[in-house]
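An instance follows:
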Amino acid sequence: METFNSKSQDIGDQIMSIDHQHNFELSQRFYFESAHTLLRDIETLGSSRIHGHTYESEITLSGHKDINSGMIVDIGEIKKSIEMIKEKLDHRFLNEIHELGPPTLENLCIFIKNNLIILYPNLKRVLVERKSSGDKCVLVL
């Protein structure tokens, strides 16, 4: 019986070692409500008026899971970081956020990336979309 337990432990250690070698992607979605105006050459009237959208965003981290925790990053930590971003964007007039630039989907992706990359150098993707209009932008790092 002792031989069985030691073999089980050896197999368990081997599985843990193999599992650690996998590359995982971990994503977290969030949304925010914001208003903006855009200076455009097309659809100028609607874009130049203050209007709002529901934006959905998803960030994706990539990496190997920690042997002890079994996680790439604790999802609770990611949620805390997302709250910091939501405070800057949710129920705001995006044109007033100077570090954003023109409030386009592309610039929202870059803004989110810039606010997370120091905390999460393994950030691999930032998605921002407006589902109601079918618009989506993905920043791949």
